[in-house]
Structures are given as structure tokens and as C-alpha cells.
Write a structure and sequence with these properties.
By secondary structure, this protein is of the alpha+beta class. The chain has 9 helices and 17 strands. The structure holds zinc ion.
Length: about 290
């Protein structure tokens, strides 16, 4: 999809199902199940959506998804369906992994970093051999010292090989990665969780990552039970949503099962609710797929 001078594409890397209670924190099921119906194991279905931003001078992949290094038992637990192996994720868009210049990972949980590396001849190697992998320094440090509650979401195998290959680029705070593409630290989900803000011409957009994983999380207090700092998430969401609505940003949800991108409108009056207006389904078909 055209976005100013940029070209944007979505890759639906995998489908997974996570516990609905964990996805909506303190929100009662009687409320969340209206927008996110639960299966017989109380899980809600989601995608891992990767965003490719082609600025014309750089190709930036946002997130890497779950990857395919999962046992049968884990696949069953997460209802995981891998749609595309890591080495083929950008091939769907007519690109080879060698063409990716930057890979931005919002945080190092396994559903975001799992596809960062792949198995090659029994060894874990970066999936994108030329790319610089952008991670917040604070997130990197935390991944190695997470306590018992937080630790289960990190698998060092997903990211240690990035350091070993010399492709890891740690950044501290808000940073411009390439002209028009920025990371912004939000905290909330993890203390150094980052979103990706991008702009070209008159267009502005944001990839919310896990600060707002699906359209059902639009209401600021509807934050995930997984969040380390839920009150921060609520505040940050309110700020971003207000800006997104006011300036007509394109917003992208990393785990939305339906159309994952669109715009935000705010209802009338001070109590007006934020609403999501998805783009038409055709917007998901990339130029490569049309050709
Ligand atoms: Zn996630």
C-alpha cells in the first residue's frame, strides 16, 4: 500500500491463541468476549502481523513473529499455526531476506523475536543476514535478568545469535532508524517496550506493537494482564490514540485477527469513545502479489 513515498505491506506470519483473561487483564469476560470470542479453552485467536516499510532507500521489517522452532506440545498450547517459515516471510512480498536493511523488534518476547533467527545446518543464525536488528538496550538487559513472572516470555535462543553475528544494534530511547522511521519507547508492556512511528509526505503512522495488540484493546483501560506496568500502558494509549485521531494517523495492530490497519476516530464530546475504522481488505494485497 502506498503511504507518501513509502510502500507498506503486512505479512501474516502465524495464528496463535492466548488465554482471554491474560489478554484483557482486569476487564471481565462478559465485556471482552463480545469483541473477542473465546474458544472452549477460553483462548482468543490472534495473528502475528509483521509490517514491512519500504522507504525507497531502506527496507525495514517491523517484528519477526513466532518463528517455527516450536514443539508439538507448545504448538498445541498456543494454538499455533505457522503460515510462513522465517526465511520465507518476506518472500511473500517478492523480497529475499538479504534485501532487508533493518529489523525492528518492539521487545524480545518470543512472539516478536521468534522469527529473528532460523536453524541452518543445526546452528541458529539471523534470518536476515544483512540486516541490523534494532532493540532497546534496556529491553536487552532485562531479557537476561527477568524474574520468575516475566522470564517465561523470553527465549535467549531467539536473540543471542544476533549479538554473536554482530548484527545487534542496541538503541537508547527514541531514535530515528532511517529517514522517516522512528522507534519510540512507551514502557507499559515491558519497561522498555517500543512502538514504531513512521511518516512520509503528509502521511503519519504508528505500529503499536503490544501496547495495543488488537482493535479490541482500543479502550485505554483495556490493557493486557501480561503488561508489567498496566497503568503506564493505559496512559500511553490515551496519548497515542488522541494524536492518532487528531492527525489521522494510520495505525497498525500487531496481533489483530481481522484487518490489522486503519484509522482512529473519536466520538463527539469529552466522553467520546475512540473507534477503529479498518482499511478495505484489498489494502492487504501487496504490489508483489498483484503482479
Ligand atoms: Zn505480543
Amino acid at each position: 500500500m502506498k503511504f507518501g513515498d513509502f510502500e507498506l505491506s503486512i505479512v501474516r506470519e502465524s495464528t496463535l491463541s492466548l488465554d482471554g483473561g491474560a489478554m484483557f487483564g482486569v476487564v471481565p469476560k462478559t465485556l471482552w468476549e463480545k469483541s473477542s470470542p473465546a474458544d472452549e479453552l477460553n483462548r482468543v485467536k490472534m495473528h502475528c502481523n509483521l509490517l514491512l516499510i519500504d522507504t525507497g532507500s531502506a527496507k525495514v521489517l517491523v517484528e519477526t513473529g513466532m518463528g517455527d522452532r516450536w514443539s508439538a506440545a507448545e504448538r498445541e498450547r498456543y494454538g499455533l499455526e505457522t503460515h510462513v517459515a522465517p526465511e520465507d516471510a518476506v518472500r511473500e512480498l517478492g523480497l529475499s531476506p538479504e534485501q532487508i536493511d533493518f529489523v525492528i523488534i518492539s521487545h524480545l518476547h518470543f512472539d516478536h523475536a521468534g522469527g529473528a533467527v532460523r536453524l541452518l545446518d543445526g546452528k541458529l543464525v539471523p534470518t536476515y543476514p544483512r540486516a541490523r536488528y534494532i532493540v532497546q538496550a534496556g529491553e536487552w538487559d532485562f531479557a537476561f535478568k527477568a524474574n520468575a513472572r516475566a522470564r517465561a516470555s523470553y527465549r535467549p535462543d531467539d536473540f543471542v545469535p544476533l549479538k554473536e553475528s554482530g548484527q545487534l544494534q542496541l538503541v537508547e530511547g527514541n531514535t530515528e532508524i532511517t529517514p522517516g522511521v522512528f522507534v519510540r519507547v512507551t514502557g507499559g508492556h515491558t519497561s522498555h517496550h517500543q512502538v514504531v512511528y513512521f511518516e512520509s509526505g503528509a502521511e503519519k503512522g504508528v505500529f503499536f506493537a503490544d501496547i495495543m495488540p488488537t482493535r479490541s484493546h482500543l479502550n485505554p483501560p483495556w490493557v493486557m494482564g501480561y503488561d508489567h506496568f498496566p497503568l503506564t500502558s493505559c496512559d500511553v494509549k490515551s496519548e497515542y490514540l488522541a494524536q492518532a485521531a487528531e492527525q489521522n494517523w494510520l495505525v497498525v495492530f500487531d496481533h489483530e485477527y481481522g484487518i490489522p490497519w486503519g484509522h482512529i476516530v473519536k466520538g463527539e464530546g469529552p466522553k467520546g469513545k475512540f473507534e477503529f475504522r479498518p482499511l478495505p481488505a484489498q489494502s492487504l494485497i501487496s504490489t508483489a502479489q498483484i503482479c
